[in-house]
UniProtKB/TrEMBL annotation:
Name of the protein in its database record: Thiamine diphosphokinase
One Pfam family hit: TPK_catalytic
Natural source organism: Lactococcus garvieae DCC43
Gene3D superfamilies, per database record: Thiamin pyrophosphokinase, catalytic domain
Taxonomy of the source species: Bacteria, Bacillati, Bacillota, Bacilli, Lactobacillales
EC number: 2.7.6.2
């Protein structure tokens, strides 16, 4: 099952088809404006006016209105609900990158709080963010994304990179973030002994 979650920031119009559409706060309105069926709307809806909220309430198949003061972001609450219902689904989150830096960083790290985070990705016009667990992985080149960034999360700087423009041995690992690597073939080999790896495919604007 393929699910898209629109997190509320302006995003490119969807061209890919999904089985289930979720709007977070103003993201629900964006999905309706693009003529998508709105299966689920979640948020405190402080970013829409009364008329817009009325439209969301009328057109959403299901709506969860959250209090304005809470211990979770709207996106976190929405993703938690989606994961509780569809734990194995592939989830693409759009409209979550850019804007306020604290929101941006929170959203980048958010999927790591959930089981099966390897089935979650974040996407915008320039970036595709994926997640890997400890172990050995062969990742594929994706057309249109010439650059690859890697962020280590609790890996003990154990990252190894092979079959890449800039290979790396664990003994030479001196940083938590490595930017602007590139594929030299259709795939690249990565290894971490523990923790998680945030994999960022990117391109210039």
């Amino acid at each position: 099952m393929k699910i898209v979650i629109h997190a509320g920031r302006p995003a490119q119009a969807l061209t890919e088809k999904f089985d289930y559409y979720v709007g977070i706060d103003r993201g629900a309105l964006f999905l309706l404006e693009e003529q998508h069926h709105l299966d689920l709307a979640v948020g405190d809806f402080d970013s829409v006016n009364a008329k817009e909220f009325a439209r969301i309430s009328e057109d959403a198949a299901e709506l969860f209105k959250l209090p304005e003061e809470k211990d979770q972001t709207d996106l976190e609450a929405g993703l938690e609900l989606v994961r509780s219902r569809f734990p194995e689904a592939e989830v693409t989150i759009i409209g979550s990158l850019g804007g306020r830096l604290d929101h941006h960083l929170t959203n980048v790290y958010l999927p790591l709080n959930f089981a099966n985070y390897e089935n979650i990705c974040l996407k915008d016009a320039q970036n595709l963010v994926r997640y890997l667990s400890a172990g050995e992985h062969t990742i594929k080149k994706i057309e249109g994304y010439p650059y690859l960034g890697l962020v280590q999360v609790n890996t003990g700087r154990s990252l190894e990179i092979k079959n890449a423009k800039y290979p790396l041995k664990a003994k030479d690992n001196f940083a938590d973030i490595y930017a602007s690597n590139a594929f030299i073939s259709d795939s690249m080999d990565l290894k971490i002994d523990l923790g998680q790896l945030i994999v960022i495919y990117s391109k210039d604007s």
